[in-house]
Amino acid sequence: MDLQWRNLPLVITLAAGFVTATSIQSESAQTIPDLSGIWEHANPGFEPLASGPTALVNRSRRPNGTGDILKLAGDYTNPILNAQAAQMVRLHGELGLNYIGDPNPRNQCWPEGVPFLFTNGPTGRMQTPDKVTILYVYNHQIRHVRMNQPHPAKVIPTWYGDSVGHYEGDTLVIDTVGMKMGPYSMIDWYGTPRSEALHVIERYRMLDYEAAKEGFERDSKQHNNAPGMPPPNASGKYLQLAFTIEDKNMFTTPWTATMTYRSDGGPLDWPEMACAENRNWYPGKEADVPRAAKPDF
Question: Cα-flanking dihedrals φ and ψ of residue 112, to 5°?
Answer without folding.
Answer: -85, -35
